[in-house]
Every structure is written in structure tokens, then in C-alpha cells.
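REQUEST FORM: STRUCTURE PREDICTION
Request ID: SP-0412
Submitted by: Lab K.M.
Chain count: 1
Length (residues): 408
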Amino acid sequence: MREKIVLAYSGGLDTSIIIPWLKENYSCDVIAMVGDVGQGDDIEAVVEKAKKTGAVKVIVEDLREEFLTEYVYPAIRTGAVYEHKYLLGTSLARPVIAKAQVEVALAEGATAVAHGCTGKGNDQVRFEHAYQALAPELKIIAPWREWDLKSREDCLDYAEAHGIAVQQSREKIHSRDRNLLHVSHEGGELEDPNNAPLESTWTWTKSPQEAPDRAEQVEIGFEGGTPVSINGQALDPLALIELLNEIGARNAIGRIDLVENRFVGIKSRGCYETPGGTLLLSALRELEALCLDRDLLHYKQEIALKWGELVYFGLWFTPLREALDAFVASTQANITGSVKLSLYKGNIAVTGRTSPTSLYRPDIASFTMGAGYDQKDAEGFIRILGLPARSRALINNALKKTGVEVSK
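STATUS: Completed
RESULT:
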């Protein structure tokens, strides 16, 4: 019986040529697994293309809602941002696709899984760590680490030789990844970090110059840290993110240009568009400012850094990520309310926030002196706080009188 290999298939340049390459080099049956995470492709066309290039079977998995509720929403609740800018759009999509791919492989009796990630990138780790965590018995095939193709030009040559139609051209070679959360752009003029992205590089959001000349108002409602409504209208996760993406994109929200540190030790440059996710993160942070006490809010920021690093590095299926998720979930019980944002040419201004569980006390915060806060208490608090500083100053002064030099 011929070996079955399940390929994570997108229909792009790399995975399009991998199907015939696998058949040539492994004498196998290739099953193409298409994970729909909202990339906006014509799925029927992708399926037909996989069949034309040699797949014996094509399986489409609708992962959109799972991607949002089990991956994107936890990232938003955590406040995870990698290296100040990146909202982890690709990093979050890979484990849900890999999980579905493993499930297909086990159901189809396959002995191996394959992906189209290069040996330089983060995605190879994200896919392969997931494979090992979920089904270590499956063999892993990474064609980019085996074949003698060295560049996208080589891949285009291979595609042309095998009669495979691809969207990429020799004049315009961008590597793009799109899902419900973002679209990423790499390659082309972006390979030089001193080059500004071309206006044609951006494919989703309007530029600030093209955005409306009037600010747009949007109100986002949350229950337990989960977004549930836009402008007072309750929406399911898919409809909610699609509406926020539409609102953010037309107001030039969510563009970033980033030189980032890959897990493998390489610096790379990419541009990202994350319109709806940027709005969600901005709104939830404002609600947390109302509802979380100081120490918990500050510690959660440290957790967010580690969580974002884990997910960027491809370590989704780990006990540490699960434990951090449990901590974050415990912080979200009272994160209920709504936040009003004003959007104007790429800028987000907060115009209001309200919550039934708000810790903000107008009677205490007001400049008007009331009974809720006795200012005289501050004297003892500050003296206790300053005790170490006073002690150190007294000791240093005594030492100076004896001629001993002391450090400040």
C-alpha cells in the first residue's frame, strides 16, 4: 500500500509545487488539507488546484470560529504583543491548522505530515512542535530542508516546468499570509529595512491619506474579557471580527512595519495589517484599566510578554502556555463593560469607558476632598515607605563624618 502524506495546503507557490515534489520523491499519495482561517481565498478554486497538481484527496476544515475563540481571543485577553508591535496573527493560526492537519492524518491512516515552511522561518517550528506534541508517531516532511530549490525564482521555474499556475511573478514576489486577524507581507522591497513599503504592498487597510476626513465612533462591548457587541449590537465571533476589520481598515487602523527577531536567530522585516485586532486590544486594555487592581494589572503585563514569546516561538502546545492561560482567565471574570473609540486616519482615541465592576471611585479620585479618603493617612504611609531611604542616609552621613567614602 502506498504511503499517505497529509500536506498543509494553501494553494500558494510553495505548497503548489510540493504536491508533485512529494509524489516524485516519496512515491506516495498526497492528501491536501486546507485549513480555512479566514484567508479569503476561493476555497473551491484552491481545492481544484490541489487536485490538478496531483492530490488524491482534498479535505477542507472550517477553522474560523475555533481560531477566533480558542486562539485569537486568548491572545487579546492576555494582551500579547511581540516586540512592541506584532499581534501574532500568523503565530496564532499555525497551531490551529497543525492540529486539524494531525487530526486528518490520523483519520486517514497517513504515516506522515508535510508543510511548506522554509528552514529559515518560525513557521517550521510552529507546525513541527505541534505535530510532535499531538502525534509524535507521525513522520515529518519539510521539503524546503530537502530539495535543491534555493529561492522563489527556483520555485517559479519548478512550477512552470510542471505546468502549475501561481499568482506570484518574477517582478512582484511578496510572501503574504492572511487570516481573520491580519495579513502579513514579506519579501520584495521589504527585504531592505531602509526601503519604505510600496503603497501597493498594503492590501487591506486604507492609507491615512485615503481614510475618511471625519472621525468614526465605535463602541465595543465585553463580557468576562470576551468581545460580544459592536455599537450595542450583539454579534457572534465571526461577524464581530469581520465588522471590526471593516471599520478598522477603512480608517487606516492597524498598519505596522517591523524588524523582528525570529526564533531561529535571524532578524527579518515584515509589514502587518491588523485592523480589527488592534481595536479589540485597545478597547480591552482600557476596560482592564478600570477593573483590575494595580498589582494584578502590572503583573499581567509581565505574563503577556512571556505568553507572546511562547506563541511566537511556536510553543503553543505546552504546559506553560496552558498555565498562563489559566492565570489570565482568572483575571477576566470582572472585565465586563464597554469602551468607546474614535478612529481618525490611523489614530485611536478613547472617548469613554464604563463597567459595572469598575474599581474607579469618583468620590476618591476627585480633587474635591471627601470622606472616602483621609489625607492625613498619607503621612504615615510615606514615612514607612521612606524608612529604608532615611536609614541609608543617616548611616552614610555618619560614615562621611569619619572620612569614609560612600556611594550614592
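NOTES: The first helix runs from residue 13 to 26.
Reviewed by: T.R.
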